[in-house]
Amino acid sequence: MTPGPEFLRPAAEGAALKVGIGQLMLALVAGAVVAAFYFGGLWLTVRRVAASRRPVLLTFGSFFARGAIAVAAMVWIARMHWQLLLAAMASFVLLRVILVRMLRPEDAAMEVKDGS
What we know:
The chain is 74% helix and 0% strand. With 116 residues, the chain is mainly alpha-helical.
């Protein structure tokens, strides 16, 4: 038996777990935190790449580090229950959509509204 709170223990094989609303809320928050880390790191990388002495190393290093941490977090969530992974992934994608709309330059937003 894995130590720790019951809702953090991996699902047993063949077990039909019922996921509670509290667990879903934690998964949604976890997905949003992972997304904030991932896209925040991307934003920092893009801002620093022009001034970097080794832009390729910075770009690929950042990509692999952010990706590895995001995948590790999602695998940890998936070990608990697939429904929690689904909730975490949904909040990850939702935060991405929100960030893209919030951080879009004004002239790009106007082009979308004008249909051009």
